[in-house]
Amino acid sequence: MTLATYLSDWLTIHSTAQEIKARTIDSYADMINRLISPALGSMPLEALTPDDIRHLLAGIIEAGHERTAELVYVLLHAALSDRLPLALQGIKRPHHRQSSPKPWTDEQIVKYIGACKQHKHGLAFSLAITLGMRRGEICGLRWRDVDWSYQEIHICNQRVRLASGALVDCSPKSESSVRTIPIPAALLPRLRAERGFPDAYVCQITPSGLSHAHAKLVKQLELPHIGLHGLRHSFATSSAKHCSDIRSFQAILGHSSYAVTANIYLHPDHEMLSRAIDTPVNRWYNV
User: Fold this and answer.
1) Contact in structure between 92 and 184 (CB atoms under 8 Å)
2) Is pLDDT above 60 for 286?
3) Backbone angles phi, psi at 167, to 5 degrees
4) DSSP for the chain, written as a single string
5) Per residue in 170-199, pLDDT tens?
6) Confidence class for position 266, pLDDT limits 50, 70, 90
7) What's the rounded Cα separation, in Å, for the pair 171 and 17?
């Protein structure tokens, strides 16, 4: 059996058993077809050595794709650790340096929010900057996920583009990403004005389209460039600046890691979460 055949069979088995998320399966299939199979796919599985994998990873890194090399390692480790553990012996997991965008100041955030009020995609941008929602979460949000009685948004879906080009709905990034966020009072009028049918998407735009529209607006406003995901960093930084309850906006952002004591013994309620959002948002909207 060749490595390509083994990886294909392994992926099919785990896909059928639904042990791996659909987007991860799609990503694995793309890496197998595009990177692993052309280099090592025809090699007999039992002949695979650590040096073969080292050369594969080194080539990906030399091409300037450290993060991709790390993901290829994760894939091979998952697929081979039981069947052929010696093939990974002595190989260290590649690490990439993740650069965080410099967050905007309050003044820059206010300028951005002012432009959002008149922009056709302003609601989507507002969900990113005032609630710290991820791109896929914004595009996957449906009106049925908005609880008008309690003035909350339930994050339980995301919309993503697969490597195949298909646009699909799937569960959020992790268990902690499934969360409920209070809607700040300043955002309610815009939400009510655009309210649609329960099954309709709140923001009628694709994830890539949203990123392009954001980049265009940032350029027009002559603001320091940050990607759409960078709005989460700006939200978190401003929240930390104006609100000391870090555990609350950690829950708002859907992050899982924090001090064990805080994660186990602190349980932010609606009032705490509202305070974490309303403090910076009301400042930006001058409420």
Assistant:
1) no
2) yes
3) -100, 120
4) -BHHHHHHHHHHHHHHTT-S-HHHHHHHHHHIIIIIHHHHTTSBGGG--HHHHHHHHHHHHHTT-HHHHHHHHHHHHHHHTTT-GGGGTTPPPP---PPPPPPPPHHHHHHHHHHHTTSTTHHHHHHHHHH---HHHHHH-BGGGEETTTTEEEE--EEEE-TTS-EEEE--SSGGGSEEEEPPGGGHHHHHHT---TTSBSS-S-HHHHHHHHHHHHHHHTPPP--TTHHHHHHHHHHHHH---HHHHHHHHT---S-HHHHHH----HHHHHHHHHHHHHHHHT-
5) 888 788 889 999 999 999 999 999 999 999
6) very low
7) 16
d(CA 285, CA 279): 10
Domains of the chain: 3-88 (1.10.150), 106-285 (1.10.443.10)
Strand pairing report for 146-147 and 158-161: unpaired
**Both tokens assigned to 122:** 């302003």
Strands, sheet with 179-182, edge to edge from the N-terminal-most edge strand: 146-147, 152-155, 179-182
Of 117, 139, 158, the C-alpha closest to 211 is: 139
Q: Say whether pTM exceeds 0.90.
A: no
Given a cut of 70, whether residue 258 has pLDDT beyond it is no
* Strand partners of residue 176: none
Q: Pick left, alpha or beta for residue 64 (phi over 0 → left; psi -120 to 50 → alpha; otherwise beta).
A: left
